[in-house]
Design a protein that fits this description.
The chain is 32% helix and 21% strand. It is α+β, with helices and mostly antiparallel strands and 138 residues long. It is elongated and about 70 Å long.
């Protein structure tokens, strides 16, 4: 039996990765009506906090393309704030891969820069990364 060549058609316009702290988000962008799905849940269910939803929508709101693309996002690791930042970076990268002319506007707003800040480790003999135990003279 001859092996048939199966052509797998990619249904997404762009696929990009965004990272922040210890969160990693894979963003899949396609033309649509503006629906955002995160880990097979609606964005309102996944992020009950309005600030996280605002962060996720920032690149689309800046470009006024809220109702032009559907987003499917898989995100893992970290907390909700880190995940929202990772998704924002992934969305911005996906929009640039679809239309490179959008790069200047997204770059100016700072959405294409990966946030390098991470939690500093706790040092031994201290309460936290920098906070020390209170010194007692007597």
């Amino acid at each position: 039996m001859a092996a048939k060549e199966i052509k797998k058609e990619n249904k997404y316009m762009a696929q990009e990765i965004g990272r922040r702290k210890s969160s990693v988000a894979r963003v899949y962008l396609k033309e649509g009506s503006g629906k955002i799905t995160i880990n097979k849940r609606d964005v309102r269910d996944y992020f009950p906090k309005a600030t996280n939803r605002y962060v996720v929508n920032q690149p689309l709101s800046l470009l006024k393309k809220n109702d032009q693309f559907d987003l499917n996002v898989n995100v893992a690791g970290g907390g909700t704030t880190g995940q929202a930042g990772a998704i924002r970076l992934g969305i911005a990268r996906a929009l640039v891969s679809v239309d490179p002319e959008l790069r200047a506007e997204l770059k100016k707003a700072g959405f294409l820069t990966r946030d390098p800040r991470k939690v500093e480790r706790q040092k031994s003999g201290m309460r936290g990364a920098r906070a020390k135990y209170q010194f007692s003279k007597r």
